[in-house]
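FIELD: query
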Amino acid sequence: MLLLAAVPVGVALRGGDPVARVPFAWTPGQIEVAVQVNGAPATFLLDTGSEYSIVSTRLARQFGLVTTPRGTRDFASGVTLRIGSLTLEPRRVMVLPFDVYFQRGRPIDGVIGYDLFAQYVVTIDFQKKTLTLSKPAGFVRPAAAVAVPITFAGRLPVVQSTLTLADHSTIEARLVVDTGASQSILLRYPFSRAHGLLDRGGNESAAPSLADGTRRLVEVPVDSASVGEWTFDRPGVRAFTEPIGSAASTDTDGLIGNTLLSRFTPCIDYAGKRLLLQPVRR
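FIELD: result
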């Protein structure tokens, strides 16, 4: 269990002051935060790639939550989530088994998703391992940050990207900003198949999925990927080789994960429809 305490800001706030600062643990590729679920301590992941906050089936049983199916997933109401000094009261949370984490020795019991980002601008300082939460109306943009416009696919934040392949051809891709993903760039199956990327594939690998089990990936020879003013050389792009779960979606073309995001101090501003990227000196 994470023993992390929030550092709340005093009640006399100025316009540009953050509401709270919350430390996090950096498990290579993912952001772990201490939360309270109906008053009980737990460890959650911070995930812009999740359209809902999620609690594990273990916690759902512990609290006697009544789940209701919606499509292929189960949801529960009456769950209060507290992160740092802030209390989130989502109308409903998704309930999923978190066996994939417990089997790897990580006691993760949930995900903080859309509910947090819809209410606050979230700044992720990967160097200091701190989240800064600010009200959109009082948020002050860092002077060195470059803004990348975001649109939304449902509740998922999306940025436009240009992929340059090894033969110098280019492809436009809509990538979900996904702080729950440890990888660089992952491309969904329909997009990869439509552009013939699976035929160019190199080394194969596998990645665990919370909702869909282990999924197979193949390396795609991409020379560079551009997002806003930034270009990443040899970013390490992989594609899903099977249309399973979210890998089969056509709402977006793929996702950009923490391997690239951690090169910056990103500010995720849903209200302003922008991703602010401030480069980190290394």
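FIELD: remark
The chain is about 10% helix and 45% strand.
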